[in-house]
Amino acid sequence: MTDTVEMKQGGVADKAKEAYFTASQGQLIWARFKRNRAAMIAGFALLLMILMGLFAPFLSPYNPTIAGIDKDYRNGPPQMPMFCDQNGCSLRPFLHTLERKRSLTTLRWETTVNTEKRRYVQFFVPGWEYRVGAFGIDLPGRSFDFTSRGLAFDTHLFGIEEGGIHIFGTDGTGKDVFSRTLHAIWTSLAVGTLGVFIAFVLALIIGGIAGYYGGWIDSILQMVTDAVRTVPQIPLFMALAAFIPDEWSSETRFFFISIILGLVGWPTLARRVRTHLLTERSQEYVLAAQLCGASSSHVIRRHLLPSFTSYIIVDLMISFPYMVRTETALSFIGLGLKDPVNSLGALLQNVSKADVLKNYQWEAIPVIFFVALVLAFVFVGDGLRDAADPYSKSKK
Length: 396
Description:
The protein has 396 residues and is α+β, with helices and mostly antiparallel strands. Helix 2 (25-34) crosses helix 15, helix 3 packs across helix 15 (365-388) and helix 12 (309-332) runs antiparallel to helix 15 (365-388). The two termini are 32 Å apart. The strands form 2 sheets. Strands 1-2-3-6 form a 4-stranded antiparallel beta sheet. Helices cover 56% and strands 15% of the residues. It folds into 2 domains: 71-170, no CATH class; 183-395, Orthogonal Bundle (MetI-like fold), CATH 1.10.3720.
């Protein structure tokens, strides 16, 4: 009996060793990444926020632009649905009815809560129309798509029988903070994605050419790389902000900011690609490919860069929080995206006002999502970096 148990355990161990030695690079990285608890939690949080941004129009009960203003509930506190009150409990969540009356003493409109009347929350309700395209970006006033106008929908996850429901409250103009936050997450992610893509392409091209050919080509490209790295970004952005015409549309400003972020964010990855190719270009598999008549572009694209894939992915993941943080900082100081565009930086502009911090603290809720988004990217990037390193302690 003991011999049988030992044989089974030995068979399981042999299969585990065989699976380890036959696993692909991606499978090994994923296996080591799963052992990092902090990275996994951050990964789930990041995936949740990405899905929230992706399905922002469906999850948002109201249009986050001027069209979605609630004139009767400006600077209103968050409204949390309840199931019980002094009149009893209900299986359906509800809010109390708000009544707006003019005060006889101050002659101002005042909002009072009528606890005797309920407004029940409804799900999958019709509302404002939005479009979903294959490669669309939802910007104020229109749906901008790369390929098509997409499909039009007007169904939203939740709503209420009458009046409004604002679970994160409203701002000074009456716009729903919850809807604006979801759309801001998607806008900031879209800016970061486009900026990272531009930086990624430039880094692979410039770093690949410099590392593969070396010599005077490498010297010239390194001079260009160092010149870009030494450009002070804040004065550069201030000069570009002065260059941007006020009549530019939201889409034009969006793509301009993304392109600028990409053009100043490629040198770090380019130097890493160059260093890797300088050490790998003299390897036997590269010489074999050259002797077989492979072109330089083929050798770089099919042999050298794939050996560096895991580190490129990690570098891209770490670059995302930098891009999102830069866009947020630019929008916060008024050099990036501005209202009515819903970006995290544009929303954080309201938090800097003393009146908001003192009386309307719920308008600072987007700050929580911004911090969570950046931290999630950082933890996931660190986890991928450790998992991609074959000498990392995380694999033990």
